[in-house]
Amino acid sequence: MASGNQTEVYLSERVVVLCTCALSVLGSSLIILTHIIWTDLRTTPRRLLVFLSVTDWLSAVSYAFGVWSVFRSDSTECVAQGAISTFSNTSSFFWTVSIAVYLYVFIVRSSQRVADSLVVLFHLVSWGVPLVITVTAVCLNKIGYDASEVSVGWCWVRIQAPDRVLWMLLTGKIWELLAYLTLPVLYILIKRHIHRAHAALSEYRPILATRPPSQSFSSMADVKLTLIPIIFIVLRIWSTVRFILLLANSPVRQTPVLVTLHGIGNTSQGAANCVMFVFFTQPIRSRLCTTLCCCCSNCRAEAPHLDDTPQRHQARRDSRGEEEKDGASGVQRER
Question: Which domain of life is it from (predicted)?
Answer without folding.
Answer: Eukaryota
